[in-house]
Amino acid sequence: MTKSAVPRYIQIHNQIKSRIEAGEWQTDKRLPAERDLAETFNVSRMTLRQAIQTLVDEGILERKVGSGTYVAEQKVSESALGMTSFTELMAETGRVATTQLISYKFTLPSNSEMAQLNLSENDEVLVMERLRLGDNEPILIERATLPAKLVSSFSRTDLTESLYLTLEKVGIIPGRAQQTISASLANERLAELLQIKRGEAILNVRQVSFDQNDVPFEYVRSSYVGDRFEFKLMR
Questions:
Q1: Does domain 77-225 have CATH number 3.30.70.240?
Q2: For residues 115 and 104, what is the distance between their CA atoms, to the nearest angstrom?
């Protein structure tokens, strides 16, 4: 996608994110008022709000009622050198992995999906939500988004049961992944799907997967049961 095809609010999103990463705006630092930011970036306040909301959705910014928008506290962030499938992870612990498909649809991308996958607002995506189990015990629920142009020629079974093997058929080899990990409490829907009590601890992981050419091809948001899974970060 050419630079001109990138929506203006995504460009603003990227610029604000770069300033935060450069240390210009630090954790718990309140951002300038919307009016001032809109003037700085020479955009309407509506466009500026779209950019801000996308950053809020990604956990980079947070809104405080009656106070303003702040740089969120930094979460654990890890750049993975490779990716291991859920089936392989379960096999390492002697468990049998199974998957239950919750939803599967082709649709237009959300603001966050456009930003993470470098898409335009007219690029269709596949969004599928799956419950992953080990020995029939729910471990996590994941919502995966992929550009429709990469997967439209494959069947639902191909994509839900062996996604990475299916993608290899069109030359997409998983390379690295960027992960952001945070903690929260399970809402009613998550509690029901994961068979836990509402308010129990869960781990939230946002991951952008890149292919061998360092092009993003998958954006996944997962919620893990806190006491059924652990992450090992290698440095």
A1: no
A2: 21
